[in-house]
Amino acid sequence: MLVSYSWLKDFIDLDQDPKDLAEKITRTGIEVAGVKHPEEGMKQLVVGHIIDCEPIAGTHLNLTHVDVGEDEPHQIVCGAPNVAAGEDVVVALPGARIAGNVKIKKSKLRGNESNGMICGLQEIGFPDNLVPEKYAKGIYVFPEDADVKPGQSAFAPLGMDDYIFDFDITPNRADTLSMEGSAYEVGAITDTPVKVEDITLKEDGPDWTKDFAVEVDPELAPKFYLRKISNVKIGDSPLWLQRRLWNAGIRPINNVVDVTNYIMLLTGQPMHSYDARAFKTNKLVVRKAEKNEKLTLLNNKKVDLDPNDIVITNGEEVVMMAGVMGGLNSEIEADTTDVLLESAIFDSTLIRKAALRHANRTEASSRYEKGVNWDATTRALDMAAMLLRNDASGKINEGVITGSSEKRQPVQIKTTISYINKVLGTDISSTEIAAIFSRLNFKAEINNDELIVDVPARRWDVAIPADLVEEVGRLYGYDNIKSTQPVLAETHGGYSKKEEAIRRIKNIVQGQGLIEAISYSLTSLEKAIGFSQEPKKPVEVQMPLNSNRSTLRQNLMTGLVDAASYNMARKQNQLAIFEQGRVYDFENNTYNEHEHLAALYSGNVYFENWQNNNEKIDFFYVKGQLTNLFLALGINTDDVEYKAEVIMYMHPTRTAGIYIKNKYVGMIGMLDRPVTQSNKAMKDSEIYGYELNLDVIIPLILNPHTTAQTAPKFPAVERDLSILVDQEVTNQAVEDVIKENGGKYLHDLRIIDVYRGSHIAEDKKSFAYRLTFLNENDTLTDTIVNEAITSIDSSLEKQLKAEIR
Amino acid sequence: MDLFDRLKELREKGLDEIDKAKNEEKLNDVRVKLTGRKSELTTILHSMKDIDPSDRREVGQRVNKLRDLFNAKLDDAKNEIVAALVEEQLAKEKIDVTLPGREMHLGTKHPINIILDDLEKYFIGMGYKVVQGPEIETDHYCFEMMNLPKDHPARDMQETFYIDSEDLLRSQTSGDQARVLEKHDFAKGPLKMVGPGKVYRRDDDDATHSHQFMQMEGLVVDKNITMGDLKGTLELMAKHIFGQDRETRLRPSYFPFTEPSVEMDVSCFNCNGKGCSICKYTGWIEVLGAGMVHPNVLENAGVDANVYGGFAFGVGLDRFAILKYGIDDIRDFYTNDVRFLEQFSKEER
């Protein structure tokens, strides 16, 4: 809502600096997003009277002489199509500054000296959408009633000397979507009395109520009043009214439409005027639209009406989308003589949805959706009627037709002074509280601690004691409330066990040099179900912004791959990134969220270096990082198993499922070639990664408890073992046999070499292991170790057909 | 030849040989020759019985003295040789210490999580529990329980991602308030919680809008919580995040789940309140929304609003990070450009 400072002065005595006042309003009530002073940045714009105006032959230009209040008229060349002798216009004198910081100088045009410029409104800062249509393509001409004199500043007559507050109104304070409401608010803030005038209307036309029928569904329009004004003469509104409209951000149209807009700005009550010719049926019906009904709106938009739109009809055809915008078929036109004037309240939700549905939000609809003053409906109607008589010389027909007139119970709130102080943490006296309610123009009765407040209908946001606390608090001043800390029984703060575990895990992988990423949870359906062992039922949103953000991810890897693609397209090929977050699915008839961890690596372990130590990231580097993570979490590596598996989007022979204690916890591997090859940036890169389901892992690592053990005192014995096995025998199979047969002193087992190649048979490979034996309580003898080795050897030979080398 | 002369001769020759031995091997040969079991000195000592008894004492003393001399000289020579070897080795091993080391990636936290962790630790220290709720939330908890009536604009399909008629991607973390309020046993003490997490809104992504972002909810409920407590709590938090010399102020605002509702501004850390483009020439930057818990929210969760009351606040973590680090495009948080992310490693706390 744009609130004019000079208009506010109609209601309150104000002498504050407008910017200081704006600050005060922001602190106490409504955020003032800005204060605009239209003349700012402009100078030497005066009123000029065009004495004569002759076309310059062979051009579209005119040579004018303009009285600008100086001894001699100024000769000015003007190209506007609507320039003519006798007009009062805006002249930028030589030395003037107009919009866009443009300076006006004396100049010569086609050999004619031009001492200044005759301005259009756009040239002096008016936005296009506020300029009255007839001046849209030319200079501005003051109307006859403007009462301007040559040489006077043009700022005041155009309202450019005003200060305009941009009220950023929260949904609860729609009462300030009117000048009267704003005046009450500013009056309360500045502790200044507010004068809001009522009117007594004298009707001077015939009684029309017997000849016209109105049918209203009160569910759709709880209040609906209609008046008829005859014999109007359509023309321009007086300048003072136009000024107020454009300073409020509304374009002046004609003296009828302007009045309805003006009254809406004044009272907050949206008004509508119909050409009475649209109601030859002598009937007006308020109802919901029917299927297939259509309407062309005033802005020429053709609308297919929805059965939930409220419409106004003449009993035969729709003439308005109620509360939103009128139809072209009932528009006030130049030859309109009789006007039906409507003041009504429509259901706020239906109006909001209609405006949204048809993408046609208006000043009226936005007021209806936030609520309007229940007490202003008929008053606004009468005020508009009076203005139509004044500005458009209409006759006000006798009588108001009431279509509906639902009553609302006045709001009375009972509370206590002590409750207000308790919530605010203050010690405000009952006298001060009484004063605050008097500033608000609320009737308040105080008996000792008891407080009874009658809330005027114009403040429909105030309904419960907590609302009164807010009114007192803000006017008392939040700055005046002392800052304290809650004095409470002691509470123990902290994370949940699960959150603690997640944080531990994140710290470890971060310590491994991984950069944390955060991706979008919403992705495409295809990506959402990729990278998993077996996709679950995906969760899709009903109205996605686009197909790339339609489905909740079931894996984090897809986000990291997107990040890899983005980075690699920017030549960042050395990547080590991770994400910890949730994945989502629908299973067992419920929506599920699981905490996951995923990491992605590409490039080399080290950055490029002079030693050419460029160890490439491979499966085993990433697996080693994962092993370190498990070790750090206290997971026994013997419990972890990797099984070659085929997983969507992962390399079919370089990918493993990871199992801990036989539970599937995730996967590790290389991105499948088709995934990288199809992406220009990732083409030819080997990208590795892993993804873990922390919901499975965390229960295994909760409550780690370490009972300290002294380091072994007896020496360990190391033996190396080299064997030849068939190609398809896995390391895991060999290790299993060794561990099973290594006896109780086998302390550690490590594979130290794998060989395939020319020195051995094609279908064979060689493994070398280092076995460490240790007896915690005694020195090991060779005999014991040899026995273990013999047992291992024979088992390997027997079970895996291994050849001991 | 006189035995004494012979000893003199041995002395000169021996010293000369020690001098000439330039490596450990040769020196060892000399040691054997001069002082070994088969050396002349040993032989002399072993044949004392053949010497004139009157000279025996003198000869014995001289031989021992000479052997001590040889040993001392041999040791010195050996030390010199070893020292020279070490010297040579060190010269070989010399490196250019100005050459760069091998670098690996430096792990970093995401900037939003730096802010989040900082806030969480701060509030944990103040006795708050960190509570996590579901991101796939019900209409009931996200809106109904939070005093947003059925026809509230936030509940439109246009504004919120609905999954079905009842389930949605939460557009605010406030649902966590309702869940915790329902479960909390006030007989066991007051409720103090913060609830961080991802939220989603049906906004097209641009420099200032993101369909996904992160919030943190705070809630304190007990019998005597005041707006002064809210003010004090928020002030301390703002100073913790934005600096001790920041000033704060509260302004009236509106949220369906609090009454009174306020927004908090922090004095602009760029211009210190003088006015600049970051604070839109107001000197103040809006940082969060807060208020006293609306009685309907308490009653909806079965908490007697006549007895209990409290305050709540909601922090936009993306916004905090944007303000704190001077980020001008919210999408930077989610494109995960490593060059952008790496710069925050020094911000870890």
Report on the architecture of this protein.
Chain A is α+β, with helices and mostly antiparallel strands. Chain A is elongated, with a radius of gyration of 41 Å. In chain A, α10 crosses α12 (465-476). The termini of chain A are far apart. In chain A, 42% of the residues are buried. Chain A has a 7-stranded mixed β-sheet with strand order 27-30-31-35-34-33-32, sandwiched between helices. Chain A folds into 6 domains: 2-37 and 163-190, Phenylalanyl-tRNA Synthetase, Chain B, domain 1, CATH 3.30.56.10; 43-158, OB fold (Dihydrolipoamide Acetyltransferase, E2P); 213-405, 3-Layer(bba) Sandwich (Phenylalanyl-tRNA Synthetase, Chain B, domain 3); 411-480, Phenylalanyl-tRNA Synthetase, Chain B, domain 1, CATH 3.30.56.10; 497-701, Bira Bifunctional Protein, Domain 2 (BirA Bifunctional Protein, domain 2, 2-Layer Sandwich); 717-804, Alpha-Beta Plaits (2-Layer Sandwich). The model of chain A has no long low-confidence stretch (mean pLDDT 94). Chain B has 349 residues and is an alpha+beta fold. Chain B has 2 domains: 3-93; 111-347, Bira Bifunctional Protein, Domain 2 (BirA Bifunctional Protein, domain 2), CATH 3.30.930. In chain B, the strands form 2 sheets. Chain B has a 7-stranded mixed β-sheet with strand order 1-4-5-9-8-7-6, with helices on both faces. Chain B is rod-shaped and about 130 Å long. The mean pLDDT of chain B is 91. The chains are: A alpha+beta (805), B alpha+beta (349). Chains A and B meet through α2, α7, α10, α12 and α13 of A and α5, β1, β4, β5 and α8 of B. Chain B: Its cofactor is Mg(2+). Chain B: Residues 115-323 form the Aminoacyl-transfer RNA synthetases class-II family profile domain. Chain B: It catalyses: tRNA(Phe) + L-phenylalanine + ATP = L-phenylalanyl-tRNA(Phe) + AMP + diphosphate + H(+). Chain B: One of its GO terms (biological process) is phenylalanyl-tRNA aminoacylation. Chain B: Its main location: cytoplasm.
